[in-house]
Amino acid sequence: MEPLEDRSSGYYKLVPTQGAPLLEISGVKMHISKGTDPFTSASEMSQQAVRKGDKVLDCCSGLGYAAIAAHRLGASEVLTIELSPQVIGLRAQNPWSKDLGNDGIVQRQGSSYELIGTMPSISFDSVIHDPPRFSLAGELYSEEFYREICRVLRPGGRLFHYTGNPHVVKKGSSFVDGVIRRLKAAGFKNVVKVEHLMGVSAQKK
Hints:
Blueprint: E1 5-6, E2 12-15, E3 22-25, E4 28-29, H1 38-49, E5 55-59, H2 65-72, E6 77-82, H3 85-93, E7 105-109, H4 112-115, E8 124-129, H5 143-152, E9 153-162, H6 175-186, E10 188-194, E11 199-204
Parallel strand pairs: 5-6, 5-8, 6-7, 8-9
Antiparallel strand pairs: 1-2, 2-3, 3-4, 9-11, 10-11
C-alpha cells in the first residue's frame, strides 16, 4: 500500500471519497465532492455541453473524469489536455482514470492556453473548460482565451466552464459575473450560471 501523492513540485495527492478519489493540490480540492463524488459531478458537467456524436475539447482535464464521461455520452472523439506532469502521473495510477486509454480519447500534455491557438477553427462541437483557480491561471479566464474557445467551436457549439465559487473580487461585481461578461464579448450567447455545478454554460452564436 502506497499513498498516491507527488511532492516533487508542490503537493499533489489523491484523496478518497465515497466514490472516485479527488485531486488535491497543495491543500486545494480540485473537484466538487460535497453531497456527490468527483466522477458524478464531472459527468454532470459533461452533460451540460456534450451530445452524442460530438467532437469534444476538454481543457485542463485533471484526472480525466469529464473526458471519460464525454466519451461515455457518445462523443465521437475527445481531445483532453493537461498541463501538469504530476497530475498525469497520478492519474496513471488512479483506477478511475483508466478509461482515458480507450479508443476515441486523445491525451495531450501541455498548456491549453498555448495549444488551442494551434487548433483549426470550427473543429469542435463542444468544450469542457475546468481550469485551476484564477490566482493560479488567470489567462484561462481571459476574454482572449474565450475568443479562442469560440473560434474552435462550430456555430451553435456548446461550452461548460467550471468557475468554482470564488469570493467577490470587487464591490458590486462577482467573479462569475465578470466571466459571463467576457464570454458574451467573446461571441457566446445563452450564457447561464449553473450553480450546483459551480460553473457557466454557454453557446456559440
